[in-house]
Fold:
Amino acid sequence: MGKPLVRILKIVLDNFKNVEKGEIIAGSSENLLQGKSDVLGIYGQNGSGKTAAVDAIHLMQRLVVGEKLPRYAEEFIRQGADCASVSILFFIQSGDIPLEFEYTYTLGRKGDKCCVSAEKIAYYSYKEDVRQRRKTAFQCDILGDDNRFYPVRKYEKYIKQSEKNLVDFAVAKKMAAANRSSLLFSKEGYGIFSKDYLDDKVSLGLKALRYYMFMKLFVITNREIGAINMQMLVPISFTQQDMQHINTGKIPVALQGTSLIPVRIYQVLTRTIEPINQVLTVLVPGIRVEIEDHGRQLMDDGAEGRKIELVSVRNDVRIPLRCESAGVIKIISMLNALVAMYNDKSVGLIVDELDSGVFEYLLGNLLEIIEKNGKGQLLFTSHNLRILETVSKESVLFTTTNPRHRYIRLTNVKETNNVRDMYLRSLSIGGQKEPLCEIVDIYAIGHAFRKAGRELVNEYEN
Structure:
């Protein structure tokens, strides 16, 4: 059996950041199986829930690969709520077995810490290409005193009857609570639930989802973009599936001065730069990125490393990469992930503020090409309205001012309509199921500026 194909179908947020309730249809199984792309851009005013969708996916990725919650995880629970939950429905094709697999995690508080308080697995199987009814296969309150999980009959048959399984599960549950990590995807929990004896569909889904999160999903968050804008570092996305130790991920390279990296990371980076340049020279004519190798040096752990610096080359003139614009650095950072997503139907790329620092004409053309000829899945947030003129109306989602119904698609949009014009008209006069933004009085803005100016003058004079 070959590697599984995975695509995100739907994302549901409950009390996550500023989203009380929100549902996003992100892709389709038909496009995955036909090798077609799924492109979805999320638009809306500042603070309306665009980044929440990216953070929800990124947090799930962290949990599935076995990492702990970040120290700032409590920020993801909506103010005034006791907990937050994220549910993502995936389509999985493993060999000739199709499966819709839903994983839900819930964040809650334990004392002064934010933990994964509950997890749930449900799925839809297929019989002769007909989707069967939804089946809840696992549900567990990780922070609760009850050491059982649902369905109880599964717990009693496969866990309670075995002293070893009983101890292993109790230990896994306590470790997940103490480590602020997933129970299902922790080292201890995955060893239990990835076995076929619990449910062969659960086993298939867990293994496929873990493979996808490790190998095929790239998430570029606002924190990484901030590091670029602050001239701290550039995280180079890579995919090297033929390497013995490393497959996909990001290599952080300092923008100020040099970076000392392990030799095997250096080898991955050198292999990554060439495909980046093949596309970069087309997107930004006349520019290449190269590695300035300053030689071998021992690392703190005694292992051999290479001291390197990234440089850009224009017309044979070499300058440190930090001297380029933030937009060029951002393109270089995510370009390898874009190449992988364009060519591999099982790759997913999630980008917050895709338009930040990128020339709008270039961005519009890039997304038009990806939507028409790409194979993978791209989900992004943006403010740039040029994109609305280059992608189909099905590829755009808009945030609303209603936290209980945070995401909608525009209604009454015909094939001949300009989506950008329809969106601007809806912002001004409404006409959609939910208001898309808070109405701002331009005269009130001018008055506020004048009033603030008078207060500043008075402060200086005093």
